[in-house]
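It would be a great kindness if you could assist me with a short task in structural biology. The matter concerns a single protein, recorded as an amino acid sequence and a row of backbone structure tokens. The record follows directly beneath this note:
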Amino acid sequence: MVQKFQSPVRVYKYPFELVMMAYEKRFPKCPQMPIVLDCEIVKDEILENGAQRKTSRRCKLAVDAPYIFKKLIGVEHVYFIQHNYLDLANRTLNIEAVNESFSSRIEIFERCRYYAHPDNPDWTCFDQTATLDIKNFFGFEHSMEKMGMKQYTQTTLKGKEIIEYFINELKEEGITEVPRWQPPADAPLSPKTRVEGEENGEGENATEVTNGVSGEKRPSSHDILLDGDFIAKHLGQLTPMQESKLLELRKLLDTPGEEVEKMPDYQTILRFLRARDWHVSQALAMLKDSLKWRKEQDIDSLLKEYKMPTVVSDHFPGGWHHNDKDGRPIYILRLGHMDVKGLLKSIGTEGFLKLALHICEEGIQKIKESAENLGKPVLDWCLLVDLEGLSMRHLWRPGVKALLNIIENVERNYPETMGRVLVVRAPRVFPIAWTIVSAFIDENTRSKFLFYGITDDEHTKESLEQYIDAEIVPDFLGGPCKPLLAPLSYVDQITPYYFTHCYLANCDCTLIHEGSLVPKNLYKMNSLEEGDDEALDNHHESSQNSAAATASATATAAAAAGGSLAQQNLHHNVYKTVELRTGYSHEVIIRNSDPKSVLTWDFDVLRSDLHFTLFRVTKELPEKHDLAVSFFDMSDFTEGVNYFKEEPTLVCHNKESVQGSHVMNHKDNYVMHWFSPSCGAEGPAQLNYFYEVLSSANYKGSMTSLQSAFSSNSASSSCQSR
């Protein structure tokens, strides 16, 4: 197994000659590196009239390993050979080190370089690479690999500290400046004064290499200057191993034959590395695919050339709104207020995707602006999703397909740009939508979701204030940031729809539309998928067809998501229809054997009002065939003793649709109960209903986080989506 390590460039803000004097003071040993027991010079040559010096040392190192490990391999210390090549004329020092001990079983090769900063000759740069090749080490290959990584990390962290220590020691001795080397006046230089290893294309004055274009110089390694100050200011806290991976990927993008036309910045490279768990080869493939996609789709010009369709500016309920407490730009999306169907029928799937990509590009731009304004690393943005109004109607099949298409494109091309997702006012139907969508979201991204259910505004406000300053919480979420409800006609003299706008001084946040239905005269197509939504268009004209279409949409989306949810929704004709005369009841029994499973329902009421209640029964239920008699009218049923009202009674009016869900915590019988108090002139009430039990396994990591917001016995939990 071969491990490669590479450090970013470290910058000492001292001249090369002073750094070299400090470097020599660390031999034969120094207190900051107790692992180095001794260093003996075995060869020392001065060449080119003093311009070059070649020094070889044999260094004795303590074995930094557990006692039992040292006993097993039979050694307390090991030896390394270090070769230094100092070129004072070109102001470079190249260091190579290899292991002498166990060289037949393990090969360690380290190369370090000190050189004058390419842009500031009074500063000195340092970089370091190492390889560890473990062939056979008494069965402890994995342990040796871990120790090698640990040792590399320690030496990388200590290196700069040691040089700084000895420079300060020199200052105490009164040495703050060392003159540059000058050749003797009467001694000519050799015609070749170069850096060791330069024949391999390395070193400061390496021969020019072209990118296949005559005379075009390919950037040398010095053009890739990733120093500690840059990392701290722009990338945040990284471990030495992460820094090594970052630099490795950056250099791979600059390798002959692998060059990219436009080199991405370090922040972008870092995001792709994190998205692939620091696997360089996987991150390289993902990043190159994304760069190719950006070129093919001309994404770089999207911010400049994208013209937002009028229907989007009039009806899309989203916009940017200040920064969170970590400096992340906040995007607010009032998803529950979005007319998904109307927008899709107006701008199409491609238009919807382009809108999403434009938001992502805006996000990248705002991330950079925030980092610059705050003077600290900001690498992602925050999404605040308001789900008030979300219902099963949002699971319209073309809408779900468009959403999954957006997720797929964003996951591939904008990884790790979403730092936090705050989902507020999540209704009871949300677990169904989350089950379908979450299967397509990267696991690391899913971990950034925080859910808050339908509770009072004050509770929502308190929850948000953990992440957002109190003064910028929007008033529709209980905060003091009062929106200006201004007719759109005040903005650009178009029809009077309403926007929210922040009253804070010097606020430049985008106007956020409250959301509204898109007029059908703006539709550019009759149907995105012929036949998929026809019943939904005529919901009130044919409730039964509407129910079937909703089932079809849900089933298709679930089938795309895979898993048990898809298996339970393969049939379109899952909606049942019953008629209830005055005083009649309809009851559906669910025998639950899976605690924490979720019961979901969707039903339509026509002609007359119905009362809906969910009960839990702890005794066996008898067979019943008479709609005029309810289980709970029987003498041996007593509320609070052998049956319990799990959901408060909900009055459902004529032509209403109701969706909801309930976590079934007990291995009991659950009864969905509809009652017809009276019938109108149109005849008996008509009920079209569908229900489903979703396995508790579907909600690991999703429903668990919702439990604090949804209490099965609280009034807030009984809220239905209509």
Remarks:
- Residues 340-374 form the longest helix (35 residues).
- The mean pLDDT is 77.
- The chain is about 30% helix and 25% strand.
